């Protein structure tokens, strides 16, 4: 540990303790150096093109924001550039479903297990698990979870997302939303299949409209860092003080993030980073370090698993160098 401390000082970290929780503060200079180190990894990726609205993203962008439990932030790179939240919103959908539905009923509809299939696969629904989605962070699971939200699902999840990010007035990217609708046949197939097996009840198209709109909300690194910091603090947003979710629900959401949050790279990321994280094909990653901080990363260029190529490498480096792993 002493060696780690010496190396940290040599690299320019500021290990000053904050007043709450012993969270380590760090410098923007250090974060800028990490962003510069992993820009080549970002440039090696490819932006998502299967949703046309995502194809215009700049593949050379990479930004990061760290938010501690006092709400203090450190930023670097293109941290103010916004992308659509995409699959990261599934964590908010899951939290709202947990609030509205007893766990026993929720797990009758959705499992909490990892899958080796792609996030938009229909194979597992047909062949495994009594037709239940394997977890709430794949498309089928998120659609099923959204169906369990009471009342006006879009408005209620948006209100929760604004609370988690501390960003009132989050906006839907209308161009991406239209692309989601126009290219959403696989999600329609998933949803109609789930209705045929009794997982979904009620009308499919209004549910999918809400789902497409939620995936199209624009967020930046600070929004994602606040989201992660709120989870890390047991549901309390460290900037606004709003309690957005019960601690137990945050624990459940983060546990599933550990095993399922990074698509087909979840196991590898768990080994190398060891922190709960959820990615989206827009290039964002939201990570939570329980009791310490939230981290938001944006890098639109993706690796072969659909995760931000530079963002994954950057988070793994932060975990190694700041000793963030919870394992």
Automatic annotation (TrEMBL):
| Catalytic activity, EC | 3.5.1.2
* Enzyme's top EC category: hydrolase
Name of the featured protein: Glutaminase
Entry keyword set: Acetylation, Hydrolase
Q: Transmembrane residues, as ranges?
A: none
Q: Which domain of life is it from?
A: Bacteria
* A Pfam entry, by short name: Glutaminase
HAMAP family in UniProt:
Glutaminase (MF_00313)
> Subunit structure, per the record?
Homotetramer.
Origin organism is Pseudoflavonifractor capillosus ATCC 29799
Q: Name one GO biological process term.
A: glutamate biosynthetic process
Protein's UniProt keywords contain Acetylation: yes
Residues annotated for substrate binding in this entry: 87, 139, 180, 187, 211, 263, 281
Q: Which InterPro entries match?
A: Beta-lactam/transpept-like, Glutaminase
* Single GO MF descriptor: glutaminase activity
Which reaction does this enzyme catalyse, per its entry?
A: L-glutamine + H2O = L-glutamate + NH4(+)
Indicate the family of this protein: Belongs to the glutaminase family.
Gene name tied to this protein: glsA
Q: Does the keyword Acetylation apply?
A: yes
């Amino acid at each position: 540990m002493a060696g780690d401390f010496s190396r940290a000082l040599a690299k320019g970290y500021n290990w000053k303790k904050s007043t709450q929780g012993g969270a380590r503060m760090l410098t923007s200079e250090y974060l800028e150096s990490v962003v510069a180190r992993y820009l080549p990894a970002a440039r090696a990726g490819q932006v998502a093109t299967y949703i046309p609205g995502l194809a215009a993203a700049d593949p050379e962008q990479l930004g990061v924001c760290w938010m501690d439990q006092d709400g203090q932030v450190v930023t670097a790179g293109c941290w103010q550039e916004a992308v659509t939240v995409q699959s990261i919103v599934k964590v908010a959908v899951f939290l709202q479903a947990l609030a509205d539905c007893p766990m026993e009923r929720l797990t009758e509809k959705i499992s909490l297990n990892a899958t080796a299939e792609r996030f938009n696969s229909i194979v597992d629904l047909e062949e495994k698990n009594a037709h239940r989605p394997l977890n709430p962070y794949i498309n089928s699971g998120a659609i099923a979870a959204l169906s369990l939200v009471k009342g006006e699902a879009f408005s209620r999840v948006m209100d929760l997302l604004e609370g988690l990010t501390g960003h009132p007035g989050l906006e839907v990217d209308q161009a991406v939303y239209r692309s989601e609708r126009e290219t959403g046949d696989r999600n329609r197939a998933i949803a109609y299949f789930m209705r045929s097996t009794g997982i979904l009840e009620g009308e499919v198209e209004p549910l999918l409209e809400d789902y497409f709109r939620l995936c199209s909300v624009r967020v930046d690194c600070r929004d994602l860092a606040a989201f992660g910091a709120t989870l890390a603090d047991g549901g309390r947003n460290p900037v606004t003080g709003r309690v957005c979710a019960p601690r137990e629900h945050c624990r459940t959401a983060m546990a599933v993030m550990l095993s399922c949050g990074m698509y087909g790279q979840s196991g590898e990321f768990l080994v190398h980073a060891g922190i709960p994280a959820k990615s989206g094909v827009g290039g964002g990653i939201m990570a939570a370090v329980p009791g310490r901080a939230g981290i938001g990363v944006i890098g639109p260029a993706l690796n072969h698993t659909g995760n931000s190529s530079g963002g994954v490498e950057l988070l793994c480096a932060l975990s190694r160098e700041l000793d963030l792993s919870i394992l």
